[in-house]
Amino acid sequence: MKQLNVLLFCLTFLSALALGPASFAERQHAMAAASVVYTLRTGIAEGRMVFLGSGGEIDGKVNPDLVFHQGERAQINLVNGEGAEHDIVIEFYDVRSNHVVGKGASSTTSFVADKTGSFPYYCSVPGHRDAGMLGRVKVEPGPRGKIALIAPDVSRDPSDLPPPIHMRPPRKLRVDLTTIEMQGRLDDKTKYPFWTFNGKIPGPFIRARVGDTLEVHMNNAPSSVLAHSVDFHGAIAPGGGAQDTQAYPGEEKTFTFKALVPGLFVYHCATPSAADHVANGMYGLLLIEPEGGLPEVDREFYVMQGELYTTKPFGTEGQQEADYERLMAERPSYFVFNGAVGALTKEHPLRAAPGESVRIFFGVGGPNFGSSFHVIGQIFNRVREGAGLAARLRDEQTVAVPPGGAAVFELDLNRAGHYVLVDHALSRMELGLVGDLIVEGPDQDAQIHERRPRR
Ligand SMILES: [Cu+2]
């Protein structure tokens, strides 16, 4: 999973040029063009304590060779797979990671691979190197070749949500969530190692009514590297269920809660670092309908916004990887609706007909940036948020939705045309954040510029 990365340090390079003549070595360093990421998991194999490769070419290999090309920025993620204390050391490069203490703990270390050769990496906890935790870093001369790109669509179709509940007594509902780490299409020619609920972003739209009891089955796929969990903002319980649902790869956890408060609520993975899990795609919406449901509309849609932090700039083709430093600095490289660039334009635009009323369940996964949600060419006739999802706002142009927040937007469509979903912080359009609402058919002349009855 964590494999090839090429990150241009343009600014460093430009500033190196601006500073005038520098030594060849300094310029080489400034031009250190590339970042390559490997993930190692500690474990036991053939009765020995070892590092196990995780993802990509090294997946499942014992003490794999970590191959870099000269000048690449090397990043090694270490995940504690069995619980003993470990670290990773590469003496030649003076690299020492933080110790990972306890199962599931992780650390990241990086260096510039500027000298070619073969160098040992090992665990420096006394006895562990001799017990088997020893491998090799290989730094090869010359640039790395291009990689093939085939990755599935991870974006959820915004029309993929359950129908309204209407009138029925409260009952018990079973909710199945499976956490899946997978390569997916981030852009036309770019893939990314997403973490998902049920293989799509956002996760499944969960629909209940007030008074229902939700029995959540949280399965962490056996192919996962990390622990995952789920925190329901609509569950009034410690952590929203996050403590009860922490699941290691291959485990199932259950958590039951009663839907006490009607509203539209975000759910998300809450395994540390939660920001990392959310940025990688682990969020979704839970609707708890008030008794009797919401007023009927012609169409409903499900849209969520999030941002990604990648090792290479927006628009780079090939393999992208998560950049933890950018995440901590809150410097996103992509903003997306429903998980990927083009999710709501090329892949799954919203479609409706003139004369129809549409409802958009809109939430922000984030993890760090809210949305100034706006539809170009439309005014929100009704906006529902807070107490009982009453239409608190009417005829609004732009509405702020914070990270971990959600609101219901209703539009009465009269005129055919192409309308555009945006965050009105419009720079984000250039970083992938745009969706299409395509209204096709004859205009409803009688309705144009007329009000529908108040709901
Ligand atoms: Cu997670």
Give structural notes:
The chain is mainly β. 9% of the residues lie in helices and 40% in strands. The chain contains 7 helices and 29 strands. It has helices spanning 10-18, 24-30, 128-131, 242-245, 274-279, 324-328, 343-347; strands at residues 34-45, 48-54, 66-69, 72-79, 89-90, 95-96, 106-112, 117-122, 134-140, 172-187, 190-197, 206-209, 213-220, 231-232, 252-258, 263-268, 283-289, 299-308, 318-319, 334-337, 350-352, 357-366, 371-376, 380-384, 391-396, 398-401, 406-412, 417-423, 435-439. The strands form 7 sheets. It has a 6-stranded mixed beta sheet. It has a 5-stranded mixed beta sheet with strand order 15-13-10-11-19, with no helix packed on it. It is globular. The chain starts with 9 loop residues before the first helix and ends in a 16-residue tail after the last strand. Residues 179, 195, 228, 269, 271, 277, 282 line the site of copper (II) ion.
Brief summary:
The protein has 455 residues and is mainly beta.
Describe the secondary-structure layout.
Elements: H1 10-18, H2 24-30, E1 34-45, E2 48-54, E3 66-69, E4 72-79, E5 89-90, E6 95-96, E7 106-112, E8 117-122, H3 128-131, E9 134-140, E10 172-187, E11 190-197, E12 206-209, E13 213-220, E14 231-232, H4 242-245, E15 252-258, E16 263-268, H5 274-279, E17 283-289, E18 299-308, E19 318-319, H6 324-328, E20 334-337, H7 343-347, E21 350-352, E22 357-366, E23 371-376, E24 380-384, E25 391-396, E26 398-401, E27 406-412, E28 417-423, E29 435-439
Parallel strand pairs: 1-4, 3-9, 10-13, 11-19, 12-17, 18-22, 21-29
Antiparallel strand pairs: 1-2, 4-7, 5-6, 8-9, 10-11, 13-15, 14-16, 16-17, 18-20, 22-27, 23-26, 23-28, 24-25, 24-27, 28-29
The structure holds copper (II) ion.
Copper (II) ion is lined by residues 179, 195, 228, 269, 271, 277, 282.
